[in-house]
Amino acid sequence: MLFRWLLLLAICLVRPAFARQAGEKEITDVIESMAEAIPEHYDMSELTGTLEYLQKHPLNLNQATATELKQLFFLSPIQITNLLAHIKESGALLDLLELQALPGFSEKVIQALKPFVTCAPSPTQRRALFSAGHDLLLRYGLGLKDSAENKGTGSPDRMLLRYRLSGTGAVNAGLTLEKDPGEPLVAGGAHLPDFVSANLSFKGNGPLRQIVLGDYGLQFGQGLTMWTGFSFGKSPDITSTARKETGLRPYYSVNEYAFLRGLAITLKTGLTHELTLFGSKRMLDASVSEDGTVTALQQSGLHRTPSELRNRQRLGQLVYGGAMQFTRGRLEATLTSFVTMFNRTFAPGKQVYELLDFRGDKLFNCGLAYGYTLRNVSFSGEVAADGSGRVALIQGMLLSLSRAISLGLSYRNYAASFQNFFAQGVAEGSETSNERGLYTGIQLHLGKWNFSAYTDWFSFPWLRYRVDAPSSGREHFAELSWTPDKVSRFTLRMKTETKAQNGSVLYSAFPEDTGRSNYRLEGQWMPGRQVTLQTRVELSNYRKLALPEYGLLIYQDVQWAKPFARLSANLRLGWFRTASYNSRIYAYENDVLYGAAFGVFSGRGLKAYLNARYKLFKGADCYFRWGTLWRMQAAGIDETRPYVDFRIQLRYLFE
Amino acid sequence: MYFFLFLFFIASPCFAQVSQGARSYGMAQCTAALTDPWSVNGNPAGVSLSGRVFIGLSHTRQHLVTDLATAAIAVVIPSHGGAFSLSAERYGFDSFTQTGARLAYSRKFGRRVSAGLALSCSRQAIAGYGSELGAAASAGIHIACTESLTAGAFIRDFSTKHFPTKPLIGLGLAWQASDRLLLLSDFYTDSPEMRGIRAGLEYAVLNRVLFRGGLQSKPFVQYAGLGWRPGSLQCELAVAAHPVLGLSPQISAGYAF
Fold it and tell me: What 8-state DSSP symbol labels residue A644?
């Protein structure tokens, strides 16, 4: 009898573990698909942090609002609308499996949802003022090799201290202190580390919905007007083409650029609408010329070298504005308007491709976004304009063709000279300007087989960096995965992209079509409840005119996690060889909690890392990472020492 | 006029002058496994064997250029055990024309297999240079793998002599995913340099209204279409969008007696 109870308990504990892996796989897929579009030092902890938070504080579906549900990025607008309509019409959910009866909810979606939600029948009650746990995180990392990080003016170690007061209560707070490798421990003559972020927030059920003092983020509409922090671009998950705005959120991440600092407040001004007012004043990093004008913004947040330190906090930015969110039935609309002011004038470079860049010291932006779901079709779109009347537009449609098949379409047209410092529309380029494109994606869930594919055609009406003519390109992606049983999965993936780039010959008259393709085969197998094996082989191909070159990456992952055990770990051994940086290969890498990274592999070498987690006592965990990269020359291992990165992290959760 | 000739010569691999009806045109010209009366110009095994007489007309305007147009007619006449189908078309402008006709016979072999054969002749004329006549043969097969999944293969306009259009080989699948949804996918090749994948879908948004869409990988072309089928009448509208050459709309109408 005891054995049966133990078995039941083990199943209950292990099942969420499987589901959690499914959720992590979603994050991994999206991050990898965006790897080339994300800046090299972009911090993705905001995304992983949100899901980690939801794992710890699952969302009660019976009480969740549309905005809260949008945090679950893998839910489509159709699913969110159907879920809310079902609860409104049929009453509270008793079990998550009830969702299977709703259009658009496959077993896969429910499995992905499981770790982050509950169906508690608790009645609406007043939010307690203080019902929060304390979350303390301390991280130390070190890169052991001569590198740019070690040539900085400061020590090569990376340090992070983060405290977060969070939970279901009304009052929450956060404090983050961080120092990147190569940065001095204290910066700017102050007695504080290089990056300090803090906020205090209050969440209410009455007219005052939320107020944040300190650092915060804003996400409205489809990202053409105001969107800070992480955003999904083109990805295998077609539901991510329709952005899900989360409105005002306190900022807990360590990205040193993508946030606002000041005061923001959300008011419920009526049954169907909410008003958010925000003001922000902060200093940004920028390159400033001798005459005092700004030539470029620096978004990396790194202050290692004398020039980076010189550019630190040289530009003052003031932002103020508001957003009105309107919801009625299946229609939602958001009107956003704000002003951005700087204490210096922008005077960008003299290259032809820079001619349309922002100049001046003041910018007005506004935008109108909408979302509407009709039966099995969800429409979403946004039109945004800047003070000079230049317009950016995006219009998307998500169509649930059958229970197993979904189709996504999205058209975008961003004027070549459209200006907005907070726009993050779906784009091929890094800016929300100078682009037209049409994205078409399809997803099929056929029992053990899943297939997703998309194609994106894009054109750039104006010149770009290293492209001295208007140009166009296309991207195709297809992935087929087969899950023959509960313990194994095989995936075949193909991605190919063709874009124009200046010719190899100096003063070439026309940019040449440059192609990059990746082919991936991956197998995952769980030989037991404790061990997961994952093998990947990826081939890359780069071609410019008639000069193709190739790259290959092979790695083996081993994950070990035993229920109830104090220790869990994962290990990777990888080998790569590419002809040059052009045929580089990206691969997601596991890290300590809240840390996530993707490796960029070029040249020839070996990569290995080990992550471990040890439960010290209740609420206290210790994380450890050791990664090594050996770069080899043709004759064997290079004489120089391998690059080693080391990280240790302590996390303590207490009431 | 020289501009049209120039456009024709630079763009000739980018479109087929063979009209297969606006239904398949809206689905990226996926015809290998499609069942449609206009399949006489695609995979002859796919000619509809519903036992009804069909007559249809089609008009395509390449790249919205007034003089570059294809006009076609197709007729299907059922016979005992199969169907005869006939098509005729004209492509070009004053200085350059292609005219052709095709006769096909299709029939079923058992419950799962249907096959078709077609013979075609074509005449190509260039003002001041004379004209040339050619003949070619086409063949195709459909295999119903399951009730909803059909595989198809065909070779079109195979000829030992010069023929205005290149032989086209297509292999494809058609999946009737639900009452409202049809998915198609083709692999096609007409030369070592020109081979790729096409994919298309047809979705019945209302009982008599159908949306269509498709993509072709090489050259990269996007397609969209709309169908309206009141009773025995079939009205189809489709458009192809080439990133450089622009839009090419096609309209077709047919009636099944």
Answer: E
| Residue in A402, A459, A472 closest to B181 by CB | A402
**How many structural domains does chain A have?**
1
Contact A457 B220 (CB under 8 A): yes
Tell me the pTM: 0.81
Cβ atoms of A416 and A461 within 8 Å: the answer is yes
Q: Across the interface, do B201 and A472 touch by the CB < 8 Å criterion?
A: no
Structure tokens at A409: 């379409």
Domain B2-7+18-256 has CATH 2.40.170.20: no
Residue A114 domain-assigned?
no
pLDDT digits 0-9 by tens, A464-493: 888 888 999 999 999 999 989 888 999 999
pLDDT of residue A573 exceeding 50, the answer is yes
Q: Is residue A163 part of a domain?
A: yes
Residue A542 CA, distance from chain mean position:
26
Q: Compute how many other C-beta atoms are within 10 angstroms of the C-beta atom of residue B146.
A: 9
Cβ contact (<8 Å) for A455 and B180?
no
Return the residue in A402, A403, A443 with the most chain B beta carbons within 10 A, the one to mutate for interface testing: A402
Q: Do A455 and B181 touch (CB under 8 A)?
A: no
DSSP H or E run through A359: none
The contacts found for A111-115 with CB under 8 angstroms, 24 or more apart, are A111/A18, A111/A19, A111/A22, A112/A19, A112/A22, A112/A23, A112/A26, A112/A74, A113/A72, A113/A74, A113/A75, A114/A16, A114/A19, A115/A16, A115/A19, A115/A20, A115/A23, A115/A54, A115/A55, A115/A58
Nearest CA in chain A to B219: A474
Q: Which residue did the predictor score with more confidence, A89 or A516?
A: A516
How would you label A109-127 residue by residue, b for 16+ Cβ within 10 Å and e otherwise?
bbbbbbbbbbbeeeeeeee
Check B201 against A407: CB less than 8 A apart. yes
Comparing CA positions, the residue from A383, A409, A414 lying closest to residue A396 is A409
Contacts of B213 in chain A (CB under 8 A): 407, 440
Query: How far are the Cα atoms of A222, A376, A439, B27, B108 from residue A79, in angstroms, in the given order?
Result: 18, 9, 21, 28, 44
Distance (Å, whole) CA B211 – CA B225: 6
Residue A25 belongs to some domain of the structure: no
**Are the beta carbons of B15 and B28 closer than 8 angstroms?**
no
Residue A593 has pLDDT above 80, yes or no: no
Range of the domain at A156: 129-202
Nearest to B222 among A401, A438, A476 (CB): A438
DSSP sequence for A133-191: EEEEEEEEEEEESSSGGGGSSS-SEEEEEEEEEEESSSEEEEEEEEE-TTS-SS-TTSS
Rounded CA gap, B118 and B124, in Å?
Answer: 20
- What tokens does A588 get? 């997601």
**DSSP element (H, E) containing A54:** helix A45-56
Point out which residues pair with A455 in neighbouring strands: A440, A476
DSSP state of A79: H
Q: Looking at this protein, which amino acid is placed at residue B257?
A: F
Residue A96 placed within a domain:
no
> What residues form DSSP beta bridges with A643?
A629
Is A402 close to B222, i.e. CB distance below 8 A? no
Q: Do B201 and A442 touch (CB under 8 A)?
A: yes
Tokens at residue A198, please? 């803090």
Q: How many Å apart are CA B41 and CA A595, to the nearest integer?
A: 58
| Closest residue, chain B, to A402 (C-alpha) | B178
Residue-wise pLDDT tens digits, B214-245: 999 888 899 999 999 888 899 999 999 988 88
Asked if residue B136 has pLDDT above 60, the reply is: yes
At residue A208, φ and ψ (nearest 5 deg) are -85, 100
DSSP state letters, A487-554: TEEEEEEEEEEEEEE--SSTT-SS-EEEEEEEEEEEEEE-SSSSEEEEEEEEEEEEEETT--EEEEEE
Report yes or no: B177 and A401 within 8 Å, Cβ to Cβ.
Answer: yes
